[in-house]
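Hi team,

Below is the intake form for ethanolamine kinase from Escallonia rubra. Please confirm the fields before the structure is written into the shared record.

FORM ID: S-0412
PROTEIN: ethanolamine kinase
ORGANISM: Escallonia rubra
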Amino acid sequence: MNSESNLLKVSVREASGNIVDMTVRLYGPNTDYVINRERELQAIQYLSAAGFGAKLLGVFGNGMVQSFIYARTLSPADMRNPKLAAEIAKQLHKFHQVEIPGSKEPQLWNDIFKFYEQASNLKFDDSEKQQKYETISFEEVHSELVELKELTGHLDAPVVFAHNDLLSGNLMLNEDEEKLYFIDFEYGSYNYRGFDIGNHFNEYAGYDCDYSLYPNKDEQYHFFRHYIEPDRPDEVSAEDLDALYIETSCYTLASHLYWALWALIQAKMSPIEFDYLGYFFLRYGEYKRQKDKCLSLAHPYLSRLRSG
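The structure came back. Fields below:
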């Protein structure tokens, strides 16, 4: 959803007289509640070696130093540009090939249930916030999580090293070199392929959460073709497109639940002036609106798989 760091550009004059630009990232307060820094630092080394993001130059107590990327940050509207969408899909295909040592266990449900435990046991000093918080039925949220975990488990989605936060702010473009960069691997982990793609599609809605901007089926299939076969997008079978469409639709729901629960923790812990409590209701509301459509796609598909 949102970077949990402050970024500073630092220019250093070398002994030779050359000026070198670097980025200093300072972690925000209380971010360890939602981010596994050890996991992030390990991943950065391997992702950087594979050509992703800025180079890691050094680490200190509450941040890191990285090389400076000369590029502009994308806007949500940029992501729906067909040429850029194809390039993001190709890069994501390559990103998902990177091997990070250690456990390959997908982290989605571990993280979501960890968020749930924290989010369902909060107490707000602000009485208005506390009142709003008490309108949430955590029993209902829990049963939604259990149901969706079971449903997605039947999809057998491939497990890949996922970015997990591929919003426009974490995509940069150097237009002179036509080079696209993925940045900010704070939420990166082994995860389900469909979650990374569905989460990215949710970000088409932008910071205002205008879900009417969610990519339509044609736009999704354009992305899928370049993701599945970056070199031969026109050769992707209809069967593979349909399967990825259903997988992504179901994990889109998981993305709404993930960031909804994340937002409740932020409402309590984050010093940033943002209506995180309101954000919970936005994401949870969209989850409820999309749920039936997703289930109506998934159940017939899974029945065909079982009988086929």
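SUMMARY LINE: The CA atoms of residues 201 and 215 lie 7 Å apart.

Thanks, M.
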